[in-house]
Structure formats: structure tokens, C-alpha cells
Write a structure and sequence with these properties.
Elements: E1 5-8, E2 11-13, E3 17-29, E4 36-45, H1 49-65, E5 85-86, H2 87-90, E6 99-107, E7 114-118, E8 121-124, E9 135-147, E10 150-164, H3 175-179
Parallel strand pairs: 7-10
Antiparallel strand pairs: 1-2, 2-9, 3-4, 3-9, 4-6, 5-6, 7-8, 9-10
Pfam family, one: Enc34_ssDNA-bd
Protein name: DUF2815 domain-containing protein
InterPro entries: Enc34_ssDNA-bd, NA-bd_OB-fold
Length: about 200
């Protein structure tokens, strides 16, 4: 049974995904905007059609809700930067094979809540528990933006529940390249102070 769920019109809880380019314990400076943010690349198996369908639905909802940012008319999909990307064609990395991926971030004042599964319950994670290569669930919130000629839908990083360990991944030094296309002024509505479906020990009940 998948844990994927549409939490609200633009907010999605994924099924099990793999974490990559993880910067959630401490923020990282974006080389383009010069601002600090928390960030993660979320690897979604192409077989997880439920999560993918919910994300597509949330993207469409974000476009409809943000239509005013596009002058009252949603541009053609080909003219938009959309968050769901194909790991088989956009990344030369075997880890990304067979996956779609989403790069998500959160403002420095909205640090994601980090939890881990222990004894069937979600408990607070310690620093280093959530790392590149681990597996878990993530909440993301999709939002439309139109900034400096860039138009699209971004992904705000919500909260994270680590389910299990995995082989640690390297390559975090180039994370800025993955997140440089995030519009600097496109703020996540997510992070500290929001449970996003997490935050209680009965999350998986």
C-alpha cells in the first residue's frame, strides 16, 4: 500500500522515494540568488504511478490557482519550467535511472521537520539521519511563479520521514547546479511550523 496522498490542492505526500543532494540539517547558499535555503532532490520510481499522478494533479492545481501570475492565461506546457524531470534523459547518473526527480527547497526560516521511523512510529530524526541515499516519504507543495521572464511551477520542500537506510550517495558538492533554476523570489509556503502530514507518532496508522 502506497503512502502517497494529496494533502491539499497543491500539497503532496509522496510514496517511498530516495533522497539525493540532501541539505536539510543546515541551509546551503544558492550560488545564483545568494540566499540560503534547505534543499533536496527527490527520486521517484517510475513505477510509482500513484505519486506521479498526484504530483501532476497538484501541478495543474498550482497553475490554475496561480493563473493571475501569467496574465490570466496559462502558457503552453512547453513554455513552462515544470518540477517533474526525467532521470533517464536529464541525468547521466545510474542512481537516477528508472526515476523521475524533483528538486525542492525551503526558505531558511522554514526548515523541514525531520522524522524517522522507529518501532512503527515517526520520531524526531537526529542530525545526519536524513542523508543522500536514504529512503523515505516527503511532503512537497507546488506553486506557480513568474519571475524575471521565467515562468513555471516550483516545488517547496515540506517535511521528511526517513523510512530506511540506503547506500550513501556522493556528489553533493554540485547541488547548486540542481537548484539554480529555482526562482529566487518563489517562496515555499512550507517548513517549520507545518506538519505537512507528519509531526505525529501515528502518521502511518
Amino acid at each position: 500500500m502506497s503512502n502517497a496522498k494529496l494533502m491539499s490542492a497543491r500539497r503532496v505526500r509522496t510514496g517511498e522515494v530516495r533522497f539525493s543532494y540532501v541539505h536539510v540539517d543546515t541551509p546551503r547558499v544558492n550560488k545564483d540568488s545568494g540566499k540560503e535555503s534547505y534543499s533536496m532532490s527527490i527520486l521517484i520510481p517510475k513505477t510509482d504511478t500513484e505519486t506521479l499522478s498526484l504530483i501532476e494533479q497538484a501541478v495543474e492545481n498550482a497553475l490554475q490557482e496561480g493563473i493571475g501570475k501569467f496574465g490570466g492565461k496559462i502558457p503552453p506546457r512547453g513554455a513552462l519550467k515544470l518540477p517533474l524531470r526525467d532521470g533517464d534523459t536529464e541525468r547521466e547518473d545510474p542512481v537516477y535511472e528508472g526515476h523521475y526527480f524533483i528538486n525542492a527547497n525551503a526558505n531558511v526560516d522554514r526548515q523541514p521537520q525531520l522524522l524517522k521511523l522507529s518501532g512503527g512510529k515517526a520520531v524526531p530524526a537526529q542530525e545526519g539521519d536524513v542523508y543522500s541515499g536514504a529512503y523515505g516519504l516527503v511532503t512537497i507543495e507546488l506553486f506557480a511563479y513568474s519571475t524575471n521572464g521565467n515562468k513555471g511551477v516550483g516545488a517547496g520542500l515540506g517535511n521528511i520521514l526517513k523510512l530506511r537506510d540506503g547506500e550513501a550517495l556522493s556528489g553533493g558538492a554540485t547541488a547548486e547546479d540542481d537548484f539554480g533554476d529555482i526562482a529566487p523570489t518563489a517562496a515555499s509556503e512550507f517548513g517549520a511550523g507545518s506538519t505537512g502530514g507528519f509531526g505525529s507518532s501515528s502518521f502511518l496508522d
